[in-house]
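Predict the assembly for these two chains.
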Amino acid sequence: MPPLPEPSSDATPIPRGWLARKLLPGGTEPDPRFTLANERTFLAWIRTSLAFLAGGIAIEAFTGGLFSGPVREGLSVLLLVLGMLISAGAAARWLSVERSMRAGTPLPLPLLVPLLALGGAVAAGLIIFLILAG
Amino acid sequence: MSVHMDPGLQPERTVMAWGRTLLALLTVSAIFLRWLPTHGPLVLALVAAAVVTAGGIFATQRIRYRRSSRGINAENLHADAGGVFALSAGVVLLGAVSIIVALTF
């Protein structure tokens, strides 16, 4: 069997973009694996926020026979606002984690976690209450 | 084609996380279609915005894989601030237009 060809690994660093220089000044580049892990965590939060958007649209679109107009709109807006907060919070969290990794300081506490827990519980509890009360 | 030597397969995992997000965006765009009969043509703008955002992820997946492979090889990877903030802003915008559509149409 002929030997496998050497993989053409290209290790030339790519120059830093304008936005990255502006938002992430100072410090040193962290381990690339940590940067990618931070990006995947951001994406997991974005998918959570998309689930809230989908829930908000679904409440408005599917519960016509269950809730009156204003109740439906209120629940829908609550879920949509939560989705927007989680999406904006995901980017803010990504930035603060990236900054503290560059500076070598402890990672910040995730404010998003209590927001998700509280928001999800309030929305679910409210929907159960309204179904039982209606 | 960049090849990396990372046994943790970080570039693959990251590209697949973007791919799952792309699929979630397409799911949301499909749910928007439920609003079409009742909420008028602005819903089509929402569907289009979600599909365009998903398309933007799709179009940059190869670049993303190459960038992160090179970054791992060089032990020096620049954070993708543009991608992160564009996606976050896109989802916030989808939510804001959804609220307008839910309340006014």
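Chain B touches chain A through 55 residues (CB under 8 Å). DSSP finds four helices and no strands in chain B.
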